[in-house]
Amino acid sequence: MAHALGKHLLLELHGCPRHVLNDISALEKHMVQAAREAGATVINTTFHHFSPLGVSGVVVIQESHLSIHTWPEFGFAAIDLFTCGENTDPWRACVYLKKALQATGGDAQEMARGQFFQRKTSARSPKGPILHQLWFTEKNENIALSLRHAGVVFDSQSPFQKVQILNTYGYGNMLVLDGHVMCTERDECVYHEMIAHIPALLHPHPKTALVIGGGDGGAVRELCRHPSLSAITVAEIDETVVQAAHQHLPQLAAGFNDPRVTLKIANGIDLINQTPEETCDLILIDAPGQDGPAEPLTSAAFYKQIRHCLTPQGILVAQIPPPTLSDSAFPQIFHRLQSAFLPHRVYPYFAFIPTYATGMVGFLLASKGNHHPVQNLDHQRAIQLSQTHPLRYYTPEIHAASFALPPFIKTMLNQQTDK
Description:
This protein is of the alpha+beta class and 419 residues long. It has helices at residues 18-21, 24-37, 90-100, 188-202, 218-223, 239-248, 250-253, 268-274, 300-309, 329-340, 379-388, 396-401, 407-415, and strands spanning 2-14, 42-50, 55-61, 64-71, 76-84, 105-117, 134-139, 144-157, 162-168, 172-177, 180-184, 208-213, 231-236, 261-265, 280-286, 310-320, 346-352, 360-367.
């Protein structure tokens, strides 16, 4: 008697809640359980989350596979179920998935795949445990970055943004805001050492510092390594970021415990407007840049207000989108800062970090005094810093090299002006 080698079901589910179709960890669990409902034996899984919305995943089973792709913005999921053998029933998986994904409707069609004459077969068992493959993917227009993780350990929608901590395999816990990688435990030292130590070692004797953003605590931790600083204020607009860091990034958030640090859950723009003139030696803008709650932090008016708050020898450092990712934004912000400070006192510099989509992070340094970013480096303090604290990226040599600009960046800054 002839039988099909396998059953192949194409399932479309409609009306699924947006959050259900965007939860990679839950989707993997549901697909694994669906395979088991069908009587299949799971071998491994691979799932990717695409920023900001969408999940693709496959469950490899001894009897073939189950796969899914979701469109959370449309409440739609497309599912492919293929099982072979007499002991599996993919329809049971369909019933389970419709309920698990909270679908209001769905369509399915079955295709018989292959024919054979019925015969007894011996069962085989896979070797080893299930290999789980969960992937987070941050996509920009022409580039993507993916990291494998074990699941989301913190997930909260604040009034300002979606705040997540993912437990990655290669880079430890990772902070993600609105689908964009902010930092990971493994390489956060690059960003935080470079945003803090460069201005602190250029200023002859910094006493007061203000960090706008920086809710993860990494920049504060590095500033606290400078004994001359007697007061460090942090203005973080989103308290959820601070909570996530305290719970899952304790080595960054440890800086908040220093008695010199004052944390204010406040809008950085409002705080700058309330700050008296010439009261800050250092101001760091530790915020993502061009969208979300950080967008007004790159305006020319805001930079001018910051200049008023800086002491005569004060220094500003701001994170900016690197030119390889946002070619138009980089020179625009550069020229806005020049309009607030003297043009010859604004300097770009760069560092290199694996978990940013381009591998590059960009900064702008603006000096109210006449501090040259290389010539005015206090080498003695820099050496003492590295001897006292276990820095992982910053050195005086790295400091100097970070201000060396490739020709394409020089050309970009010379040709484009802010409009």
